[in-house]
């Protein structure tokens, strides 16, 4: 872990550059907050013609200030020297989180910093729910404000709640997408990260309450025309399973975990957006889910599907369809399914073989009487993310 920290410090921005960015940002955010309150009082951006001429002029100035914020930060870096300019290449000028360019750097750091394989990483993928509503009902400058406030909240929660002996590196990937690299000693339980991730969700959601949807007239709707139930924007987060880091780990293996985090996020996000209480009890919307929880959710859904196949008249037809469709890469099975123990989901490679599945390097197929589908077969397909 010391080697990881040393490599990360190499890319760190200077305190002078960070404080200069904070000063410029604070001024613009203050102006945007004042204007958002005015917009709220008249029912949103669609009614901005009700604002005074004086306030509309101020609004034009504020939008211009936000537009050149990145340039001002670049100038600060240029004055500081080549090292600051190089560091800025790996940071997002709007938020000063690491930018998407840093993804390749973090992969290299993870590959080079652990010769003995004593370090592992998970990735978290997050985005802001109902972010488009802020852009549409306030302005795109307010969308930038929401991103800045959300990223500041992420950094604050990490600073206060990062688990001891662990490292969390936040990125802004673009738009409202945020990625976290969760680096720890090998074998760290997902529950170690759960308190910090929960605090990130709370901090971001509270920071975005200034965008009060209930004040808007008419009430905002989603892309399908349905009224948005949430009272303000929120953050949804999906967290991957771990991968052990060492010189032999390939970039594609590390990136697969980032993609897995996206899958976990997408598995839960629609429900969290539809029902703000489903992801957390505070009703602020969004939620946090780990890969291990996604496996459990898929497994529970599989149980009901198996019962339907076993009792329905179309069981034989559906079973034959399953047999034809299943193609599972063995490496993915090991990463995403084989480590699941019998007590949790009744799925591991040994049980699948015992229950009639043939496993080779290229595929996993169900053999035997198609009318006698074993619970483990369907669970395996669900857990590994394949269609019914």
| Strand residue content | 5-15%
Task: Using the 3D structure, state the CATH architecture of the largest domain.
Answer: 2-Layer Sandwich
Largest sheet, if any? 6 strands, mixed
SS element count, helices: 16
Shape: flat
Mean pLDDT, rounded to whole units?
Answer: 78
The CATH superfamily of the largest domain is identified as Reverse transcriptase/Diguanylate cyclase domain
Task: Report how far apart the termini are.
Answer: 42 Å
Number of strands: 8
Rg from C-alpha positions?
24 Å
Runs in which pLDDT lies below 50 for 5 or more consecutive residues are: 305-310, 322-388
Share of helix among residues? Answer: 40-55%
Q: Domains counted in the coordinates: how many?
A: 2
Order of helices and strands: HHHHHHEHHEEHEEHEHHHHHEEH
| CATH class category label of the largest domain | Alpha Beta
CATH topology of the largest domain: Alpha-Beta Plaits
Write the layout of secondary structure elements.
Blueprint: H1 2-10, H2 15-42, H3 53-67, H4 69-80, H5 82-88, H6 102-112, E1 119-129, H7 131-137, H8 140-161, E2 167-174, E3 177-185, H9 190-207, E4 234-239, E5 243-245, H10 251-274, E6 287-290, H11 291-311, H12 315-325, H13 330-336, H14 342-345, H15 349-354, E7 357-359, E8 364-366, H16 375-383
Parallel strand pairs: 4-6
Antiparallel strand pairs: 1-3, 1-4, 1-5, 2-3, 7-8
Helix pairs in contact: 2-3, 2-4, 4-5, 7-8, 8-9, 11-12, 11-16
């Amino acid at each position: 872990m010391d080697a990881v920290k040393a490599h990360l410090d190499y890319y760190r921005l200077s305190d002078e550059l960070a404080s200069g960015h904070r000063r410029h940002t604070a001024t613009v955010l203050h102006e945007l907050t004042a204007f958002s309150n005015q917009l709220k009082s008249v029912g949103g951006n669609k009614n901005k013609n009700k604002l005074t001429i004086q306030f509309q002029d101020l609004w034009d100035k504020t939008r211009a200030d936000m537009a050149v914020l990145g340039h001002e930060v670049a100038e600060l870096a240029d004055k500081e020297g080549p090292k600051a300019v190089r560091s800025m290449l790996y940071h997002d000028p709007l938020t000063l989180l690491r930018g998407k360019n840093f993804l390749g750097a973090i992969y290299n750091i993870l590959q080079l910093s652990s010769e003995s394989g004593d370090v592992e990483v998970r990735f978290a993928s997050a985005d802001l729910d109902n972010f488009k509503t802020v852009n549409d009902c306030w302005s795109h400058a307010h969308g930038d404000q929401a991103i800045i406030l959300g990223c500041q909240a992420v950094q604050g929660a990490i600073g206060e709640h990062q688990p001891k002996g662990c490292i969390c590196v936040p990125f802004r990937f673009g738009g409202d997408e945020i990625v976290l690299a969760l680096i720890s000693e090998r074998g760290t339980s997902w529950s170690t990260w759960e308190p910090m991730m929960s605090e990130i969700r709370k901090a971001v959601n509270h920071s975005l309450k200034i965008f009060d949807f209930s004040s808007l007239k008419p009430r905002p709707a989603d892309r399908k025309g349905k009224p948005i139930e949430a009272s303000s924007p929120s953050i949804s987060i999906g967290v991957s399973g771990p991968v052990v880091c060492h010189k032999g780990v390939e970039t594609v293996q590390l990136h697969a975990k980032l993609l897995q985090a996206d899958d976990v996020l997408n598995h839960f996000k629609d429900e969290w957006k539809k029902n703000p209480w489903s992801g957390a009890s505070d009703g602020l919307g969004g939620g946090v889910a780990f890969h291990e929880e996604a496996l459990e959710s898929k497994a529970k859904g599989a149980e009901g599907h198996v019962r339907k196949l076993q009792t329905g008249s179309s069981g034989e037809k559906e079973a034959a369809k399953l047999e034809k469709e299943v193609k599972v890469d063995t490496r993915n099975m090991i990463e995403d399914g084989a480590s699941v123990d019998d007590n949790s989901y009744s799925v591991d490679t040994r049980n699948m073989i015992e229950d009639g599945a043939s496993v080779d390097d290229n595929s996993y197929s169900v053999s035997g009487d198609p009318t006698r589908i074993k619970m483990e077969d369907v669970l395996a397909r669900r857990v590994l993310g394949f269609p019914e």
